[in-house]
User: Fold this.
Amino acid sequence: MINETMNICICGIGPGHVDYIYKAVFAEVDKAQVLIGGKRQLDIFPHSSAIKCVFDGKTAHLKETIQQNSHLYMVVLVSGDTGFHSLRRFLVDAFPKANIKLLPGISSFQYLYAKLGMGYENALLTSIHGTDVDFINKLADYDSLFLLTDSKNNYKSIANRLIDCGYGHYMMFVGKNLSYPNEEIISLPANEIFKLDDSFLLCSVIIKKPN
Ligand SMILES: C[S@@+](CC[C@H](N)C(=O)[O-])C[C@H]1O[C@@H](n2cnc3c(N)ncnc32)[C@H](O)[C@@H]1O
Assistant:
């Protein structure tokens, strides 16, 4: 049952292409009086009549925007799924839980594993986006590791770390711009990935233990 006071809906928009967004998200966007998200996410809904607020990466600004519009129905768009390294964590701490509803989306890990025909039953799904996680000591415990990356903690730095630690032969799968027309998936061992020099925007990485 929908709570009457619920006026913030966080929607996962999947990897980005409109074909991978659930219908329920479009219904929420239609209802929205305020639509909040990164530019990439807002651009998906050019026909929405809601007030559009671009999230600039500063959670203090996001909190202010939501407080100022608390009398309106707000939809916050997040990439991938709401439950995997999204603004959900910040929003549920900043606002009463009863005001927030979540609509899941297809995560970048689901999309990339599916594209590769692989499963993630014994995978570690984690992130080095904006944070330094020591993923090397996790390699022994899982069949594969999935990592969200950023421009600093990128696939090249992952490859360098693997090589330095003697894992240069481990396969890496780099998913760039997943779901978009310029999607590219590179499948090479770390020893080869490390030679590539490219843009590190919008990339997700799987490291696979040799069979
Ligand atoms: C803040 S995290 C959000 C993760 C998201 N909640 C999810 O479930 O995938 C942003 C990171 O997700 C990954 N990502 C999101 N969209 C992507 C795409 N289309 N292609 C590749 N990686 C993507 C990148 O690693 C990016 O730096």
